[in-house]
Amino acid sequence: MSNEPPDTTAESGFEPLRATRRTALRGAGFAGLLTMGRASARQDVGVRLHWHRRDLRVTDNPGLTGDDRLLPVFVHDPAILTHGAPPVVSFLLDALDSLREQYRDRGGELLLARGDPRAVLPALAAACDADAVTWNRDYSGLASERDRAVAGALADAGVSVGVERLGGTLLHEPEHITTNDGSHYSVFSDFWREWRNQEKAAPVAAPVRGDVVDPRGSLDEEWLGEASGVAGSLPSLADLGFDDPEADVQPAGTDVAHDLLADFRDGTIYRYGDDREFPSRESTSRLSPHLKFGTVGVRTVWKATEDAASAASDGDARASVEAFQRRLAWREFHAHILDARPDVVTENYREYPNAIQWRDDPEGLQAWKDGETGYPFVDAGMRQLRDEAWVHNRVRMVAGSFLTKDLLIDWREGYDWYRRKLVDHDTAHAAGGWQWAASTGTHAQPYFRFFDPVTQSETYDPDGEYIREYVPELRDAPTDAIHEWPTLDDERRADITPDYPAPIVDYGEHHDRAIEAFEAARGDG
Ligand SMILES: Cc1cc2nc3c(=O)[nH]c(=O)nc-3n(C[C@H](O)[C@H](O)[C@H](O)COP(=O)(O)OP(=O)(O)OC[C@H]3O[C@@H](n4cnc5c(N)ncnc54)[C@H](O)[C@@H]3O)c2cc1C
């Protein structure tokens, strides 16, 4: 395997900027920047400004390799923050704290700015006399638009820098995995075959002391003082306009991610194949927010899977590792789709000839959000979301199917609720997951396929352990009654507990309603 990161700059569409005039950027219009100063402490090698976004780590970060000295920055961008929510922003702040420590351990400092990156980055590049600005590529429409605008702003400002967009988020860039006609794959099994066969790059080394610029003493105080909001202390959730999350959000940071990964590699990964669909068995990695914010590098995760495969005792153990590797491929499949079709966040990927007649059902939607539908497996998932800001994949699928099929409510409502509540919210995977559940996505769950919440609960929570944990009203109920709750008569339900609701939709009838709506959308009606 090559130690070199794949060269993604060639297809990036960004030409290095070669403007020669350095302009003063006083009053560039963001918090804290007033005065420029020269920052490069050592004049013999150039300074490169690295803009961190979803790569909040120093280890295994292709954006941090190279000969020049690094000045890292993170910009709290109000335009992006409007799409945030307390769990993700809380995780982000925790991750930034950890990143800052990682830089301090190397004699540097993470600059923290607040404002529009189109103003912040040209100004900072000028202030620190940067030769280059780098960032790792992001794939959403919003991010791509922003990045193009920042590259343009750097050029317009006449700051003499080269801009490079690097690939630190995925193992394979969208341009490298395409169908014969050059378009993105829309069938996962085909994508997987191609993705699996391509060589994967190894993790890259972290910068060491001396590779990182210590901006103190070289950048002007305005950049560094607390009042500027540029360095100094991290903002709080309240500073950024967010309430505290309702959930107990899992901790962030590279050490946490590496510990999770090591535990998973050394044990749980071998149970993944058999146990991953059972929410009470805790057999998944819980790496999703770390992969979203890049507190761990995906090459590091891949290497851990290869190590686990080499140490596997038999074919079953190797198959289990491969089941996990497929999940990493799903992650990239969805990212490639988002790159090709940025509209999947709001529009159906697969259009039906007629519009799907989603129901307007505010009470049903609220019951779903509150975990009060009277379908215990669904409610357990929605309450896990409320309490932990994370939900097991099987239950996300069942709760997603329940909303879009059983309640026939638009998938965008579910997407928006998960966006506000999940710590791992990621536009690519959320759009992929929701559109799959709603049968509007790529490889499409057929419209007539439902996840029957009773059968799902019997199959994937046979002892009712998961449901009992999150639906305490049913803690003492017999297991068969837990599963069959939606089908029991009122008297039997009242005998078991008066505290848990009756089903909000009649078991069975909603099925016919959804089939009719989808057939009408298909023009079959
Ligand atoms: C309706 C719905 C919405 C979803 N929204 C998100 C989301 O906003 N963010 C998110 O990261 N995942 C989302 N998923 C995918 C999946 O549920 C989570 O990635 C997974 O539960 C995270 O737990 P884990 O890290 O323990 O996963 P593991 O099983 O350990 O998987 C390892 C990693 O693979 C990736 N992965 C696993 N399954 C998928 C998948 N189906 N699609 C894409 N990547 C996957 C994740 O990065 C995950 O961390 C959604 C799924 C559905 C059905």
Please give a quick description of this structure.
The protein has 525 residues and is mainly alpha-helical. The protein has helices at 78-81, 86-104, 117-127, 141-156, 188-197, 221-224, 254-275, 288-293, 298-311, 315-340, 362-370, 376-388, 393-406, 411-421, 427-437, 453-460, 465-470, 479-484, 490-496, 509-522; strands spanning 47-52, 69-76, 111-114, 130-136, 162-166. Helix 3 (117-127) packs across helix 4, helix 9 runs antiparallel to helix 10 and helix 12 packs across helix 13.
Description:
The protein is mainly alpha-helical. It has 3 domains: 1-169, HUPs (Rossmann fold), CATH 3.40.50; 170-204 and 254-340, Alpha Horseshoe (Serine Threonine Protein Phosphatase 5, Tetratricopeptide repeat), CATH 1.25.40.80; 362-522, DNA Cyclobutane Dipyrimidine Photolyase, subunit A, domain 3, CATH 1.10.579. It has 20 helices and 5 strands. The chain has helices at residues 78-81, 86-104, 117-127, 141-156, 188-197, 221-224, 254-275, 288-293, 298-311, 315-340, 362-370, 376-388, 393-406, 411-421, 427-437, 453-460, 465-470, 479-484, 490-496, 509-522, and strands at 47-52, 69-76, 111-114, 130-136, 162-166. It has a 5-stranded parallel β-sheet. Strand 4 (130-136), helix 4 (141-156) and strand 5 form a beta-alpha-beta unit. The longest helix is centred in the middle third of the chain and has 26 residues, at 315-340. The chain is globular and about 80 Å long. The N and C termini lie far apart (55 Å). Bound molecules: flavin-adenine dinucleotide (FAD). Flavin-adenine dinucleotide binds next to helix 8, helix 10, helix 13 and helix 15.
